[in-house]
Amino acid sequence: MTHYFFYFLSFLAVLFAALVVRSKNPVHSVLYLVLTFFAIAGHYVLLNAQFLAAVHIIVYAGAIMVLFLYLLMMMNLNKDSEPRKPWQLQLAAVLASGLLLLVFSASVKQAEGLISTKPADNTIGLLDNLGKTLFNEFMLPFEVSSILFLIAMIGAVMLGKKEETSSKP
Amino acid sequence: MHQTLLAAPLSHYIFLSTLLFCIGVFGVLFRRNAIIIFMCIELMLNAVNLLLAAFSVHHGDSQGQVFVFFIMAVAAAEVAVGLAILSMIYRNTGSVNIETLSNLKH
Q1: Which pLDDT score, from 0 to 100, does residue A162 have?
Q2: Min Cα separation A73/chain B (Å)
Q3: Which domain holds residue B81?
Q4: How far, in Å, CA of A26 to CA of A66, rounded?
Q5: Which pTM value belongs to this model?
Q6: Which backbone phi and psi does B97 adopt, to 5 degrees?
Q7: Residue B20: pLDDT above 50?
């Protein structure tokens, strides 16, 4: 039963990811990307990583995508204003990403026998297990990431402010 | 006791992540709108996140999922700074087309 869920969610994720690239209107792209993130959150639930799924929804669909939408609305970019690339560049993009896909899948296919999997343990994605790992072994990176957020916040505010002072004279 | 619940073998997750990653690469190469390029980078990060979570479950090691948290934290910080840069570019040049940002070429 969960087998079909996996293929259904994979199909949805790939379909919406392709629509993100393909759609002309940037707002539609953002909305398709939100749907892709929901499909990926479904994959996390299938992997029994419920906490990861919740955090994924909150951070990506709740925070990052809202930021994208806010920027698009603020700049009034919700119309198709993008000129088309010349066909040589389009062909080059198709060829490059297709070759990358070919090389990746061929190397993964070769390495398939080398991947060692233990008997899967579906309880590791639960909150108590994850919290123990996060606050025992990854305590220092966890604290450093708060400094990273502080720096990012200061940087975003500085970048947003800079234009006013330079345009005044 | 929970061992039969896994939906798919690990190789299927690897192929799915590879496909999503390549769609992201294709978007970065194909589009000119800087915001959509940014979204495709998010898509690539998510493909890697999915792969890390799948590996972590299939190896019975929760460190991979902790790594996913850190990647999410870095992605959130990156988006905040990147969108600030993009809004500044838009204010200075009046578009988010990356073809207009070719001053270093000449």
Answers
A1: 57
A2: 12
A3: 33-94
A4: 13
A5: 0.89
A6: -75, 125
A7: yes
| Identity of the residue in B13, B39, B97 whose CB atom sits nearest the CB atom of A68 | B39
Residues of chain B with pLDDT > 70: what percent? Answer: 94
Q: Do A47 and B57 touch (CB under 8 A)?
A: yes
Q: Note which residues in 89-128 of chain A have CB less than 8 A from chain B.
A: 90, 92-94, 96-98, 100-101, 104-105, 108, 112, 115, 117-125
CATH assignment, A1-79: 1.20.120.1200
Number of domains, chain B: 1
Q: Is B60 left (phi over 0), alpha (psi -120 to 50) or beta?
A: left
Q: How far is B22 from chain A (nearest CA, A)?
A: 6
Chain B nearest C-alpha distance from A69 (Å): 10
Backbone phi and psi for residue B33, each to the nearest 5 degrees, phi listed first? -70, 120
B57-69 pLDDT, tens digit per residue, is 888 888 889 999 9
pLDDT of residue B1: 39
Residue A169 confidence (pLDDT): 47
Kindly give the parts of chain A with pLDDT less than 50. Answer: 168-169
Say whether B94 sits in a helix, a strand or coil: coil
**Taking the CB of residue A71, how many other CB atoms lie within 10 A of it?**
21
Residues of A in contact with B25 (CB under 8 A): 96-97, 100
